[in-house]
Amino acid sequence: MNAHDNGAVITARGLTKRFGDLVAVDGLDLDVRRAEVHGFLGPNGSGKSTTIRMLCGLLAPSAGDIRVLGHPLPRDAETVKRSIGYMTQKFSLYDDLSVHENLEFLAAVHGLRGAQARRRLDAMLERYRLGDLRRQLAGTMSGGQKQRLALAGAVMHEPELLLLDEPTSAVDPQSRRDFWDALFDLAEAGTTLLVSTHYMDEAERCHRLAILDHGRLVADGSPQELMANLPGSTLQVQCAETRRVQRALAAETHVLGVAQIGSSLRVLTDRRDGIDWLRERVRAIDASALVETVAANLEDVFVAATRAHGQSTEDAT
Fold it and tell me: Whose CA is closest to 310, among 194, 181, 218?
């Protein structure tokens, strides 16, 4: 039984990509299961796009093993490409063709002909609310409309697997929410999705999440698991001298992150006894300060994971 039969649509082991002296992806292990929305979270330059291009068969790895839909890559790249959809953050369709012409072209590329192509094209126009725009040139559309057209094009051939590289980076918040509803509709229908993002609210919506930093996987699990297993403490500080307290805490060894949220400070420490330790530090500066424990969020997980990785990298050099 191969990994595909066992429910794993993507399996990568030791996946590495070097560009000269730059290690863009460094020994990545990844499992993506059928019909789940698997998120890739990381800052620009963390290796997300490079990994997705290797998983699409567009880029050969320097080392490691990949199986996608049961096929080894890059050997079976051409076979795999017929069963996957790929959407990038840059609009990649033709600006000087209409909505209908773009979709008609993509149907032909994927071998859809005659009545089958017409049925699928009409279904895409309806599902992604493009019917009234069918004659409009793609280049004249808004960001949200282009995004819906790009998604319709990416799923025209009903792929088993859809890979999306920061697909919502150029659209407004309402369009982002609508887009994510469309992604969950696809997952419910059995499509597997791997979505890279740098938005915390989007990452929190994923079934599972891989956090990348400098090409390495630094955390992996469901958002709920990652938040529940966060080491240390997340605390809120209410004080009069917010900026002074923030500067002092930022210099503390056990403080992983400190951010001002409105008139209070959100502090992430690596200590389990964080509240007593932090109260003592803060009240030495502002005797009236209030310190309380708050629930961890995904941004706390991200800060803790990338900070810990940064420190371990420095220790190794």
Answer: 218
- How many domains are contained in the chain? 2
| Pairing state between β 161-165 and 192-197 | parallel
Alpha-carbon distances, residue 136 vs 70, 100, 292 (angstroms): 40, 8, 55
Q: Note the pLDDT tens digit of each residue in 185-208.
A: 999 999 999 999 888 989 999 999
Residue with tokens 């070097």: 18
> 117 and 244 in one domain?
no
Give me 126's structure tokens. Answer: 């309806």
b/e burial code for range 179-195 (CB count within 10 A of at least 16 → b): bbebbeebbeeebbbbb
Q: Which residues of 154-177 are buried (b: 16+ CB within 10 A; e: fewer)?
A: bbbbebbbbbbbbbbbebeeebbe
17-56 residue pLDDT tens: 999 999 999 999 999 999 999 999 988 888 999 999 999 9
| Same domain assignment for residues 166 and 120 | yes
Helices (H) and strands (E) in the chain, counts: 11, 14
Name the residue range of residue 14's domain: 8-227
Distance CA 193, CA 183 (A): 8
Residues in the chain: 317
Cis peptide before 61 (omega within 30 of 0): no
Q: What is the CATH number of the domain that holds 175?
A: 3.40.50.300
Are residues 205 and 283 part of one domain?
Answer: no
| Helix H or strand E segment including 259 | strand 255-261
Residue 201 lies in a domain: yes
Q: Are 245 and 289 in contact (CB under 8 A)?
A: yes
Please say whether the beta carbons of 182 and 85 come within 8 A. Answer: no
Q: What is the pTM of this model?
A: 0.87
